[in-house]
Amino acid sequence: MNTLRNLREKLKTLETERANLLLEIGELKKMAEGKASALESEIGMLREEVTSLRQLLGVAELDNE
To answer: 48: number of CA atoms within 13 Å, CB side?
Structure first.
């Protein structure tokens, strides 16, 4: 019976750890999505700034090869 009790405890522990890991994965995914969104916004603003500065200075676009 000791073996069955140990097995039940082990299963319960593993199920709890699995649930905790799934929660952490969900939180990390949300953080990653937020960071990606912030970077997209920043890149958009930087592109607009580059365009404005080029227009201000009368500089043609550089070839991006």
So the answer is: 6
